[in-house]
Amino acid sequence: MFATPAFAQAAAGGGAGGAFASFIPLILIFVIMYFLLIRPQQKKMKEHKAMVESLRRGDQIVTQGGLIGKVYKVKDESEIEVEIAENVRVRVVRHTIAQVLNKTEPAEKA
């Protein structure tokens, strides 16, 4: 008639090894995300920054808005003056330059 309630005693705690094993998939997901998303984005940002910093007068560029023009004047660190048609010049923020089409070579010193 009497049944013993010993069924709950069979489940034992996982301990410290079980806690670490539960974090392994999270760590693995973070490592995969780093190599597939974060690292390539950082590399792309570094290349864009180098491209923007190396702009010179005469370079043909494309802005993110789709305007194509030549760098007429490098004003300061944050903006340049671009000639988009003959005698039509606009000021453009440097970081909105999407691509450099033709790069001018620096003049040789004689």
TrEMBL record:
What taxonomic ancestry is recorded? Bacteria, Pseudomonadati, Pseudomonadota, Alphaproteobacteria, Rhodobacterales
- Protein name (Swiss-Prot/TrEMBL): Sec translocon accessory complex subunit YajC
According to its UniProt entry, the function of this protein is described as:
The SecYEG-SecDF-YajC-YidC holo-translocon (HTL) protein secretase/insertase is a supercomplex required for protein secretion, insertion of proteins into membranes, and assembly of membrane protein complexes. While the SecYEG complex is essential for assembly of a number of proteins and complexes, the SecDF-YajC-YidC subcomplex facilitates these functions.
The alphabetized list of GO BP terms reads: protein transport
- Family stated for the protein in its record: Belongs to the YajC family.
Tell where it localizes. Answer: Cell membrane
TM region(s), chain numbering: 20-38
SMART domains reported in the protein's UniProt record: YajC
Membrane topology recorded in Swiss-Prot or TrEMBL? Single-pass membrane protein
- Keyword tags: Cell membrane, Membrane, Protein transport, Translocation, Transmembrane, Transmembrane helix, Transport
| Self-association and partners | Part of the SecDF-YidC-YajC translocase complex. The SecDF-YidC-YajC translocase forms a supercomplex with SecYEG, called the holo-translocon (HTL).
Q: Which InterPro entries match?
A: Preprotein_translocase_YajC
Major localization listed first in the record, in broad terms: membrane
Q: Which organism is it from?
A: Rhodovulum euryhalinum
